[in-house]
Amino acid sequence: MSESFLIYGATGYTGKLIAAELAGSGLDFQLAGRNRGKLEDLAAHLAIDVPLHAVSVDDEKGLRNLFDGAAAVIACAGPFYLHGEPVLAAAVGTGTHYLDTTGEQPFMKLALDYYGPLAEKTGSVVIPGMGFDYVPGDIIAALTAEVAALRAHIDATSPVQYVRELLPPAPISTPIDFAAMSDRLGTAHAAYNEAGDVWGPGVYL
What we know:
Blueprint: E1 5-8, H1 13-23, E2 29-33, H2 36-46, E3 52-54, H3 60-67, E4 72-75, H4 80-93, E5 97-100, H5 105-113, H6 115-122, E6 126-127, H7 135-152, H8 157-166, H9 175-194
Parallel strand pairs: 1-2, 1-4, 2-3, 4-5, 5-6
Helix pairs in contact: 3-4, 4-6
């Protein structure tokens, strides 16, 4: 397998950020998307000489040929509910590792529930939701759970999993949403203690 990463949707906002980071990393990568001209402009802006591939999301054969042999596909072409599945399907179909930047929960569910079992068969690793919407929050939750476990001697995974299952399926996008979710967390905390489970005083996740 090649050691080259392939950014699909490289000329979008997030794709450009990833391309800029890789440009200074010394790693081998390629740029792909739907518009050859925009790919050339991006390469010129970053002053890089890398392979460029203009392949439409509607070109199933073209996507499979493009992904076959790549180390991994970094999918940035959104909205993912419109443009994401053909890229995901081609990556899984060729056994290519796949990572995307979606914040769209229905697409994440599709990636894990439907394409996950297929990926197990082809050897592809599928990692959706690796963008600003989720990664910082997941890191904070993991660190908080680790500290809580050390200080309160609790199972760090239990309260986090409980809260994850209780929260509504909507991203925290505004202060109002955050306040509403905080109120739900307070209710969850009280209910969890009333159920006689392991949360001790002062533990709030």
